[in-house]
């Protein structure tokens, strides 16, 4: 793009160039690409150990052109975030109440991997003595999507086979955005791993939904043409109860599409009644799906 068109958002481009353009969504570095970048200036270790670094440091290409400290990376990403918020959202849409927008952003960043609605955000802000109606919250979320800071992931009812319009999840364009804005917190690693797997499925051309079952949720139902995957993501399985929860939800789905439980801890064995167990690092580097 050149000239004035470079200032357009994707929705505006489609208005002017209907039928005369192809849109490509560019993602930040995948785990595989991150390892390739790092290999240019540093030694690459065991992929399972490197995954922990990828979780902390994220996948923005500009932060992996040379060896930067964690603080330097977060500063670079925070500058990208601030520029996007100001140029693509505040300035473009003439948003006056910037503090309200920032509170909505922080709520979504803090709740990656959790289902919520505009009403959830509105109620949360009311508890902080900030009034914001549902319609304004929806408007902010839509603007954040159009600026490619957020990805909306809808729920899919596996029984009724329909997409549900309530209690969606939002994932970040890169999980390190959360750390650059809110600071690194080890308790958020599980959500970051889920974010990473979601983006990897999207990179590979899958349409991804949350699977709603009678008893709970499947993290991801990924569909690509005639292919389908069911995926559960967990940081670790520390008890028999957790193990049953992760596997039983998949066992309740009676079809022959591949089912995965992805985890980041050490474990023995690879299959459980037809469900494949993989380390998240191995899944991200695999070519089998």
Highlighted features:
289 residues
Overall description:
- The protein is α/β, with parallel strands linked by helices and 289 residues long.
- The chain has 11 helices and 8 strands.
- It has an 8-stranded mixed β-sheet.
- Helix 4 crosses helix 8 and helix 6 packs across helix 7.
- Helices cover 44% and strands 18% of the residues.
- The chain has one domain.
- How far the N terminus sits from the C terminus, by CA atoms, comes to 33 Å
Structural class: alpha/beta
Q: Helical proportion?
A: 40-55%
Question: How many H/I helical runs?
Answer: 11
Give average pLDDT, whole number. Answer: 88
Reported for the largest beta sheet, the result is: 8 strands, mixed
Strand order of the largest sheet: 2-1-3-4-5-6-8-7
Total E-strand runs = 8
- SSE string, helix = H, strand = E? HHHHHHHEEHHEEEHEEEH
């Amino acid at each position: 793009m050149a000239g004035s068109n470079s200032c357009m958002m994707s929705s505006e481009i489609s208005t002017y160039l209907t039928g005369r353009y192809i849109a490509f969504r560019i993602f930040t570095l995948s785990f595989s690409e991150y390892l390739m970048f790092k290999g240019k200036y540093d030694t690459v270790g065991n992929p399972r150990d490197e995954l922990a670094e990828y979780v902390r440091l994220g996948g923005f290409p500009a932060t992996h052109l040379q060896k930067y400290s964690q603080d330097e990376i977060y500063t670079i990403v925070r500058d990208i975030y601030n520029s996007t918020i100001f140029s693509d959202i505040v300035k473009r849409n003439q948003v006056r109440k910037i503090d309200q927008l920032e509170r909505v952003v922080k709520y979504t960043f803090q709740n990656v991997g959790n289902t919520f609605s505009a009403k959830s955000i509105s109620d949360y802000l009311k508890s902080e003595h900030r009034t914001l109606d549902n319609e304004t919250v929806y408007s902010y979320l839509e603007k954040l999507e159009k600026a490619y800071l957020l990805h909306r992931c809808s729920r899919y009812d596996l029984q009724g086979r329909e997409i549900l319009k309530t209690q969606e999840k939002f994932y970040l364009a890169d999980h390190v955005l959360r750390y650059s804005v809110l600071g690194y917190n080890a308790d958020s690693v599980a959500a970051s791993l889920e974010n990473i797997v979601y983006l990897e499925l999207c990179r590979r051309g899958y349409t991804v939904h949350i699977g709603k079952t009678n008893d709970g949720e499947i993290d991801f139902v990924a569909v690509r043409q005639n292919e389908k995957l069911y995926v559960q993501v967990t940081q670790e399985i520390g008890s028999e109860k957790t193990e049953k929860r992760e596997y039983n939800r998949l066992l309740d789905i009676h079809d022959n599409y591949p089912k995965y439980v992805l985890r980041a801890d050490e474990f023995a064995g690879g299959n459980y009644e037809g469900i494949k167990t993989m380390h998240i690092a191995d899944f991200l580097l695999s070519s089998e799906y």
